[in-house]
Amino acid sequence: MAVMATRSDSGMRRTTVMLSTDLRRRAHAAARKRNVSLGTLVRESLDAALLTWEAPREDDPLLSDHAVYEGRAPRDLAKAHDRYLYDDGA
Known about the structure:
- By secondary structure, this protein is an all-alpha fold.
- It has one domain (about 20-85).
- About 45% of the residues lie in helices and about 0% in strands.
- The protein has four helices and no strands.
- The protein has helices at about 20-35, 40-55, 60-65, 80-85.
- The longest helix is centred in the middle third of the chain and has 16 residues, at about 40-55.
- The termini are far apart.
- The model has no long low-confidence stretch (mean pLDDT about 80).
């Protein structure tokens, strides 16, 4: 009987992920090119993606400078930045 070794000491848990045929092929090719396992590629890619989705740091010096920034940014700031920067309320 074959026994699969667990990695409980490394803090990892086995997870099944469904990938399209094309994405799986591209991921395997990228892993081979980097000379890493598919699991390593997936972990590193997911870690990098999650960093971009995390909330902004509360201790960011730009956001804590009240001469530059005060309060929460409006949700449409990127789209309507000219109105927020240059509209004098007239």
